[in-house]
Request: fold
Amino acid sequence: MATALPPTRIQHEIDFDREGRQAGYLRAPLSRNTSGWGIVEIPIVVVKNGRGPTVLLTGGVHGDEYEGPIAVSGLAQSLQPADVQGRVILMSAVNVPAVLNNTRLSPVDNRDMNRCFPGDPKGTFSEMVAHFMDSHILPMVDVSVDLHTAGHSGDSIPSTNMHHIADPALMQRTLDAAAAFGAPYNVVFGGVDEGATFTSCVERRGKLSLGTELGGWGRVNVEGVRIGKRGCLNILKHLGVIEGTPETAQKDGSAGTRHMMVAGRDCYAFAPTGGIFEPVHLVGEEVRAGGPAGWLHFVEDVDHPPLEVRYASGGILWMSAGPGRVARGDTVAVVMSDYRAS
Ligand code: CA
Reply:
């Protein structure tokens, strides 16, 4: 039997070993001026039948990214135990205060939950939930798919993503899972605040971790929802949790996912100063090294010419800036190139 779980302030009635479907809430205490003993309810659905892998599907770690929550909550309502071999844990709104507030950060503690891992059971709301996800949920999980978009801060071409993983067998299994998910692109990357993210926790535990970027700009991306819904089913098919073969045909006629990488720091373009950013390209377009990524405009000044921002690296534009007004140091473009194993 597993070792005793570490103390947590989060309570629930889910029995993760029980066969069948359970729908309920994780109850996280949140003391506030209007309710000292108040709680926050985080939705969770568990569907289990017999032996098989445990797959965790999460959305709403950031509150202004809607495609994942739509896909996960839809599947949570439709998935039946008789269709499952194994266990599926579905959490459509992990950071539910942020989801209800339409913001990346949680309004109750002003934290980005995806920079709070592995969390703290006595910490702020986001730290407490992060700790529960890491220490109570992840030990049960074989495969985690955490669905994101670029949120209000940017746009992304629908894609899965993963880190470079030292273990070659797990690296290959993750590439295979990404191909099965069937987004137009899968991006291997690194170097973005690793260590504090959910993905890092999954990897530390030796589990398979896949992320997504399914759109952004704070709207619902039609194609992102389609890819997200199809991808969740595809992953379950790939792992033998539900019957069927993954459907990976792409709109451009190709049979499957194009594996890409963000090769280094010169794939990121940052705003050198604050201004209104006029981008040149949409995500998914081809860009060239040295070519213009966009112009920063200073419309509050007379006769102040725009400042050109250039790509240091060529390839396909993975992510672009979101809001028109950017601050110095904001990411305005992330460029990916075809994946090569190093
Ligand atoms: Ca995100």
